[in-house]
Input
Amino acid sequence: MGKWIAGDGDGTPLLNAVTGQQVALATAEGLDYSAILRYGREIGNPALRKMTFHERGRMLKALAFYLLERKNKFYELSYATGATKMDSWIDIEGGIGNLFAYSSLRKQFPNETYYVDGDQVPLSKGGSFAGHHIMTPREGVVVHINAYNFPIWGMLEKIAVNLLAGMPAVVKPSPIGSYLTQAMVKEIAESGLLPKGALQLLCGDAHDLINHTESQDVVTFTGSATTGRMLKVNKRIISESVPFNMEADSLNAGVLGPDVEPGSPEFDLFIKEVQREMTVKCGQKCTAIRRIIVPADRLEDVQIALANRLGKTVIGDPKLEGVRMGALAGTEQRERVREQIKKLLQSSEMVYGSLDQPQVQGDGTEGGAWLSPILLKNSDPFGKCDSHEVEAFGPVSTLMPYDSLEEAIALTKLGKGSLVCSMATYNDDHAREFALGAASHHGRILILNRDCAKESTGHGSPMPLLVHGGPGRAGGGEEMGGKRGVMHYLQRTSIQGSPTTLTRITNVYQPGGKQTETEVHPFRKHFEELTVGDMVVTAKHTVTETDITNFANVSGDNFYAHMDATSLEGTIFEQRVAHGYFVLSKAAGLFVEAKKGPVLLNYGLEDCRFTKPVYPGMTIGVRLTVKEKIEQEKRDEEDIAKGIVKFYVEVYDETDEIVALATILTMVKKLDQG
Output
């Protein structure tokens, strides 16, 4: 609520995962959850809703730069979570990268407080009644309940989306590692870049937080499937119809293609990828590879190669040079992992690693949460199903064989839904069969081979502009995904009325709406002087066979329908037909104002289509209407102040029937060059 509040009671000790020493205390006892959510709704929400998508995007960009300049502050504290420098880089700079990604996404939205979704839907024969869809920010607050594995990324990858959408957030990280989340929120608060109430943080247990949510709120959860399912059926969530997005840990699979032989690039890439997924963050990733599915005749080769690579993994104090795997988040987490491994050992054998204390580099690490990588083998994965049901959330994975690609696909599905599945193959037919066969059970599929390996972000890396989530065990939710993710925080509303009314509501010209014919040509007006619906009617032109022949000579388009009248039998054409691009080019010649003016350039077309053949002797004219205005940011002080104007182009014939439609994009200078 705009200030730092200490909870009541002694709090829960938060320990350094490397040394076992206390780092902080966390408690949320005595906090007024109802007031906290109300503050977000009443203070944060209106402030964000008043901002346009572009303003929110620029806010995220400024915040990203601000945090990037202070990133080193977070690394030292991150080591205490057991994270290596690479683990911390994923968490810290990966999280900040999400802010940059969603900042850039503002350009795909209008410079408005709302979003116009899709195209107009005609609802009447005469065209006087139509429908459309608009999307506006929900008037509540987003509650993010996050897991312990990525204290910073887990927060930033979510708030980047809801802030761009125009909703405030209350972030409730897992107490473990929440001291790192708090350190970043402290910096965000001190930056002053977010409106009051846009971001609140709760460290400690959530208690009855969800019981105070309302119908305009949104709840997201990341963590174990068991906890997620419990929250999803909360009475308040159901009675208030609160949107609930769940992203749960899943039994993700890595598959070695049937074409891949030992010694091939794909084999080496596969071994490297599996080892990385087992050891990065000590395997404490919701996307980590838990099941390693390989051809039966290559099972031993993979086991040997993977064991050799795991054997080179140096475990220890993440601050030390050469350490490649740190500690688990805490000793409690380590014991949970050990318990799950014991369950898996009832149907699998351990072929690498040990449950005992591993060899650890560094002094003062006796109290740390250490565990070696554990590689298991299940020789009968269809008969012994623990591997598809029990997850050890640590550096643990199980090898299993398959005899056909169909079997490999079936094995991936036994996990009952996952966030990600990957396949190493250099056979695109195998890749196609696998992707289409397995897609129903996985939120993301990576195909890894020598062509993409150098730039591939890997099996375990969700990308900001692609969806992150999965069906079944993975929670059935979806987050990030570029514009798709933003839509989760917006209410889609269908609007109905006359095209003129819809134009006024959306601020985008709707076909069939009233147009205002202006004495001054729109190309003579600066950006600020143009109004949606401004229209000019051009002079007309009668098309001739000479036009068609000349255009064919210039363009090189000698398609028979334009040039050979004897070949038209059996076609839809009655005689030689004018090129569609001639019609469009001639339309441009009719509507362009030739003299120098505010229009700087024409840089594209959208939704161009030709609706009726144009034959020699027909006369065409153009109605050019201002369809939409889009603000554009100056790149620097020397840049020209300008905006983008979309013009709706209607080309019609002597019977007033439309023969061609298009939207042209122009860059128009502003009067105000400030």
